[in-house]
Amino acid sequence: MTLPAAFSARQSARRIFKNARTLVSAKAVGGVLSLAYLAITARSLGPEQLGVLILVHAYAVVVAGVAGFQSWQAIIRFGAPMQQVDDHQALKSLVRFAIRIDIISAVVAFIIAVAGAPYAARFFGWSDEVVRLVYVYSLVIPFLIAATPTGLLRLFDDFKILSLQQLVMPSIRIVGAIALWVAGAGVNAFIILWILSALMSGVSLWFFGLRALGKRNLTPNVFGKTSVHASREWLPFMVKTNLSSTIEMSHTELPVLIVGAVLGPVAAGFLRIATNLSNLIAHPANMLNWAIFPELSKVETTSGRSGMLRVVARSVVTAVAVAAPIVILFAIFRRDLAVMVGGSAFLPAAPVIALMATAQLFRLVGIGLDSAVLARGRAGWALGGQAVAAVAHLLLLYGLMSIIGVIAAPIAFMAGWLALIVVLVVASLT
Length: 430
Known about the structure:
- The protein contains 16 helices and no strands.
- With 430 residues, the protein is mainly alpha-helical.
- It has helices at 5-67, 71-84, 88-124, 128-137, 141-144, 147-155, 159-165, 168-183, 187-215, 234-248, 253-263, 265-332, 334-342, 350-375, 379-404, 408-429.
- Helix 13 crosses helix 14 (350-375).
């Protein structure tokens, strides 16, 4: 007997928020740890050197994002129907294909990072010291590309394991930051710490993902022959989602690089402080995305578009209602938050903090709609929406920076997400 659509929507929404709560509870701890290690790093290095560290990290993340395919989305999009009908051979073939893509992406990303460092230095005006640090930090880039195990843990509803894995990096960084602060270490030592933490995080994610496969007897023969060949749908979908995620970096790390190039590393440090603080809202938004996409893919398969859209609407409205009071608190205590994290030297970041928090409301809506569009298999629309959003974001950022400084970043962020929302609404309803 088929359940009524409204009941299915309620049940699916409950599962989404149950899984999201599991991730958010760990991410909340991780968010506090991240703020703590960032605060220690800021007080140890000061605005200038913190900005250098932030720029080096942003470069690595941007390169990893450009070269890395979002294979986790393909795992969920195509793996959910396979899982529904217990087609293990097809699922193993999909996993094999995704792992191969991740390996190739990691190698390409490292080569791009090393080869592109001198050109990036000229474009962004980096010193020789920063370039040397970029070369060292490039070693971590392959470990930033771990899309397949993320998709597997989400597909198998192993959200508790995934939530614990999210604590690996911030836990290592907080312990290391305290030790380096006591030792009076400089920016080089902090970069090594960030490299080690990313390495351990990537290794642990692959361990848990491969273990999940082994428990279900789904471990593929990655390098040998297989009787089930890759579908022609998989690579085009991955290419589209990769382009979409690459463009999406116009909302994340790319603005940090641009602000650093135009206004200097101190402004980049202010933006990072504001971003990390607003991540107390953004992280739950990301966890909602991680939880909602697998569920929407299943609902789309069983109940069609209308049932899936009801789940999206219920989930997004609830998420915004929960986040809004937090945004208000950020606006009220913006100066206290800036000083708490970075000290009095970071007080100019206060208005950026308030606006970045407000921008997360736009992000919440965009994330829900983006998952809905991808669950329908309309990766092209998602790509088009991200392109429109990127143009709106970067043009506004470029146009306003020389007038109002770093505060242009969150304003441009909101404009980009609003443009994305408009496109995704059209894609969801047509």
